[in-house]
Design brief:
Layout: E1 14-27, E2 32-43, E3 56-62, H1 76-84, E4 88-92, H2 104-118, H3 120-123, E5 125-135, H4 137-147, E6 168-172, E7 218-223, H5 231-243, E8 248-253, H6 266-280
Parallel strand pairs: 3-4, 3-5, 5-6, 6-7, 7-8
Antiparallel strand pairs: 1-2, 2-4
Length: 281
């Protein structure tokens, strides 16, 4: 059977570059070299020799992993939706606590942002419109990066001539204050089986204490049925943002567990997109 049809093209083809090395770490007594990489989603050019005439705002995504592991590829299928809606999206590696201590994770993410900003023309991204977003441990880091734009002590390594500050942040079910047990929110109720604290817990700043009146806009997404990070953690950050008059949106989702399917529904993606557009477009 043969059919001739006309197709109205409304969507761009999204390309994925998976092995972009933005930095490295030496570990095992400085005898082992570990590359740090990022994956970049963006509408592709028709041919490799076409100039990058279109420039996109950038979402930088930080995945979770209980501070002990991470895989930047895990959420790529869901992140493609944002690339289909007008954004370049970078999912970035960061060091985990099996080999590192804080603030190395923050240094890694900031190095990735500086790298992307320094190569903005090459990648076709708008260096002045960057929103960081992350889930779980990455949710804490996205909050930390958003609130630490003026903290240059975590800017180490390459591309120090550009800023690691971002214009906004989205935190999915973040641990906010590591001096508490995120799962149970009180030392007397601590359940070791649900204790997802990093081993160097005392070194992590409490995010609510980093908020200032000039902090960038932030969004918090949290489930009220989360057994790994209690929703009272998210409310610590929300209350600090409100107290300081920082523009914010806090969504407490009924029945949602940690990293649950609720967070990838189009309804939630539309909410995040509207928030990002209000900053970047």
């Amino acid at each position: 059977m043969k059919k001739e049809i006309d197709v109205h093209v409304t969507e761009r083809i999204i390309g994925l570059a998976t092995e972009i090395e933005y930095g490295h770490r030496w570990d095992w007594c400085s005898s082992h070299y570990t590359p740090l990489k990022l994956s970049l989603l963006r509408p592709r050019r028709h041919f490799y020799y076409d100039p990058l005439t279109e420039v996109y705002p950038l979402l930088v995504f930080i995945c979770g992993g209980g501070w002990t592991e991470m895989d930047r590829s895990v959420w790529i299928p869901e992140l493609t939706w944002f690339a289909k809606h007008g954004y370049a999206v970078a999912s970035v590696d960061y060091s985990v606590t099996a080999r590192t201590r804080f603030p190395m994770q923050a240094e890694d993410v900031k190095a990735a942002i500086r790298y992307l900003r320094a190569h903005a023309e090459e990648f076709g991204i708008n260096a002045d419109k960057i929103v960081v977003m992350g889930e779980s441990a990455g949710g804490y880091l996205s909050g930390l990066i958003t609130l630490s734009g003026k903290h240059t002590e975590w800017d180490v390594g390459e591309n120090l001539g550009v800023s690691s500050a971002v214009q906004g942040g989205v935190c999915y079910y973040p641990g906010v204050d590591m001096t508490k047990n995120p799962a149970n929110d009180s030392p007397e109720n601590r359940d070791p089986a649900k204790d997802f604290l990093p081993r160097d817990v005392g070194m992590y700043p409490a995010l609510q204490n980093m908020v200032t009146p000039d902090s960038p806009p932030m969004m918090i997404l949290q489930g009220d049925a989360d057994t790994q990070v209690h929703y009272s953690q998210a409310e610590l950050l929300y209350e600090a943002l409100e107290k300081n008059g920082v523009r914010n949106e806090y969504y407490l989702i009924h029945g949602a567990e940690h990293a649950d399917a609720h967070f990838v529904q189009e309804e939630i993606k539309e909410i995040i997109l509207k928030f990002a557009d209000s900053i970047c477009k």
